[in-house]
Amino acid sequence: EAGVAQSPRYKIIEKRQSVAFWCNPISGHATLYWYQQILGQGPKLLIQFQNNGVVDDSQLPKDRFSAERLKGVDSTLKIQPAKLEDSAVYLCASRPAGALNTEAFFGQGTRLTVV
Amino acid sequence: GENVEQHPSTLSVQEGDSAVIKCTYSDSASNYFPWYKQELGKRPQLIIDIRSNVGEKKDQRIAVTLNKTAKHFSLHITETQPEDSAVYFCAASTPVAGNKLTFGGGTRVLVKP
Predict the structure, then answer these.
(1) Chain A residues touching chain B at CB-CB below 8 Å
(2) Using CA of residue B105, residue A67, residue A92, residue A102, what is the dihedral sign?
(3) Which of A27, A41, A69, A89 is spaced 20 to 30 A from A7 at the CA atom?
């Protein structure tokens, strides 16, 4: 089966600019996560969707970050304006919904450098 | 919310020796505990997982143990090989929080030939 697709793979922007990341989850996966992974740290959950509804966005800096998942499939994560500390890899993961926990599959990630 | 602590942050072992990574979690409602391996510049990939109704699971050279009472779980790698060198992450999934998946800080494992 096709994996989780993310684009772009790399992005360099200046601080105060805006940037958007795209994720296409595995077909049929209702749960979609966006994680921020700063170099040397574990993935930190930014936002979790179940279909097109937000389940958890408690750690999303809502003054500058936004995300949507229209039609419950693809998702975009936007940063506006970017700060130097936003430099990180942004990982998208998807997972089937349901009570029986299963593996979450990750995309390759987007490496963002803010200069 | 769930908090996952992982130790050690770095681990250097001689090829052929065993490696053990430990994690603790805070939310007793968490019921699924995956372990991911991440090689440099690549995506995290699942290597083994365990559900809360099981105390131990083994897959060739990799095993995971879970102590629900103490709220900790561990990854054991035996007969380590150079290709085991990577960063390993533990995670906990919490169904009451919509299957939120919370990760530990990671352990960088270096296997020396």
Answers:
(1) 31, 33, 35, 40-45, 48, 50, 55-56, 58, 91, 93, 95, 97, 99, 101, 103-104, 106-109
(2) positive
(3) A41
Q: Does the pLDDT of residue A1 top 60, yes or no?
A: no
What is the per-residue pLDDT for B95?
A: 83
Higher per-residue confidence, B53 vs A89: A89
**B92 Cβ neighbours under 8 A, 6+ residues apart:** B2, B4, B23, B25, B27, B30, B32, B33, B101, B102
Is 80 exceeded by the pLDDT of residue A98? no
User: With an 8 Å Cβ cutoff, are B98 and A55 in contact?
Assistant: yes
**Strand order, beta sheet including A75-79:** A5-7, A19-24, A75-79, A65-68
Asked if residue A101 lies in contact with residue B32, where contact means CB atoms within 8 angstroms, the answer is yes
User: Does B6 contact A42 at a Cβ distance shorter than 8 Å?
Assistant: yes
Q: Which amino acid is at B64?
A: V
Residue A100 burial (CB count, 10 A): 10
**Residue spans of beta strands (DSSP E) within chain B:** 4-7, 10-14, 19-25, 32-38, 45-51, 56-59, 62-67, 72-77, 86-94, 100-103, 107-112
